[in-house]
Automatic annotation (TrEMBL):
Signal peptide boundaries: none
Coiled coil start-end: none
UniProt-recorded name of the protein: MULE transposase domain-containing protein
Location of the MULE transposase domain: 115-164
Pfam families reported for this sequence: MULE
PANTHER family to which the protein is assigned, alphabetical: POLYPROTEIN, PUTATIVE-RELATED, SWIM-TYPE DOMAIN-CONTAINING PROTEIN
Species for this entry: Gossypium gossypioides (Mexican cotton)
Amino acid sequence: NNGDFQVKVFGKKHKCNAQWKVQRASTAFLTNRYKELIVANPFIKLNYIQSVVKMKLGININISKARRTKLKVLKEMEIDVIEELAPGFPRLFQRFYTCFDALRRGFLVGCRPILGLDGCYLKGIVKRELLTTVARDANNQMFPLAWCVVEVESTTSWTWFLKILKRDIGTPDGYGWTFLSDQQN
């Protein structure tokens, strides 16, 4: 009569629906929780990350959250590698050039005087441009001659690359070299 109540029966059966989508499972939380798994296998599939989270935590995450988690761990790995290789040094890179002597001699002896030039983007830790030059040998196969990595594909970078290439292969007697490129300039 005074407003108190007493529980006489307690049913132990839980009838609420389970909720498998939890907003608190943020990318930062998942990154901390599964960093070791992703570091051990950087090529891990996103659906495998989803299934591990479902199995261990009982939470469904969408594929984009698994992707963000994996990318965040991989980005942290890149920073760790760069810091390990050059601790305390500024990250300064301009360019480098490679032309092996055996390739140079092979080109001068057995290839046509036609050189193909191309550039492509590098992905990964060093995001730069790869400039290459290839020739065709007597069997009409591609013959790599030289390549370089530059900060950006520009007229300055190509000029630098071609000057060093000219120094390495020289100037032939007769007609000279023919360059093929997909560039319009």
